[in-house]
Amino acid sequence: MTGVIVTGWSVLSSAGIGVDALAGRLAGAESGAVAASPGAGVGHLYEEPLPSPNGHALTDFDVRAQLGRKGTSSYDRATALAVVCCQEALREAGMTVDDTTRKRVGVVLGTSLGSFKSTSDYSRETLIQEKPYLVNPMLFPNTVMNCAAGQVAIRFGLRGVNVTIAGGALAFLNAVRYAGNVIERGYADVMLTGAVEEYTPHRAWASHLTGATTTVAAGEAAGVFALTGPQAPQWAGPRRSARILAVTTGYGPGGGEQAERALGGCVSRALRRAGADPAEITTVLTCESDEADRREYGPVSQVLGHEPRRIMAKRLLGECDAASGAVALAVLLAGTGGTAGEGLSLLTARGADGAVGAAIVKGYGDADTDRG
Description:
Shape: globular
Radius of gyration: 20 Å
Helix content: 25-40%
Structural class: alpha/beta
């Protein structure tokens, strides 16, 4: 990919729904986005026991209040978050979706494995129901990983490329790279690109038992960005917020030092592809959650030759797994008035298996309408 432009975006997180909610949370946070937050009480959300009384969930989220009753009764939580977020992103982009444009608008969403709760609940039904295992067939669509992306397309009548990428911690960066390739090859003019992760007992326990939430509580989020190319038509949105110049991924078998070297390589390749000088990187957004953790920030600083400002979105919004990258970009944009500010920023990601990735984002401080 040669770079994609963000014309509009939105995020659903523990801060609330939309750009303004996140900007408000950041405005009250110490040092932009690095102040640690314990989350809110989540015990009332589910009857099942939870590993912690606190979590970073949208505790008052009501999909019917956002979309109405029609068509939403079968949504699981991940699907509901994704559909509402896409609705907000389309609105923020000022995009016109009608019979002449809908074939040129696609969707790509990142995830870990879809809705863990929906899959688990369906499997449980096959074990506890009386023979011949009379499982409610309405439960099945939510067990498919591409359910959320499919429902987005159905809801808004989008007939372009529709993809779900199960990439774990790298899901969002993989989604951006995929979207960039689709746009560059002319298969779509706009890709609604993002990632979603729901808060449920299943995810909370999975994060707890794997040690992913030792420093921050489990969270949920959906982040979606309307991406287009430099020569996109006017209906794709009248302004630009930022440009993602390059995305690179790599793998360090076994993690540890090999993963750190692989991440350094990703940063070097991203700089070359973006034609950027390391000194231009003023901010790094990592998936770390502890000030002492430098597994991403260390290799990045070594390659850059200096230590830029580090933002750790997880400290404020929790462990959002596949949606962490989307949340990080949203934090960058929301913290600078809806754009990425002036200069270049670097997003990094690292998975437990040694997968790593990096993306370079150019800010447009004026958020103007020039797409050049």
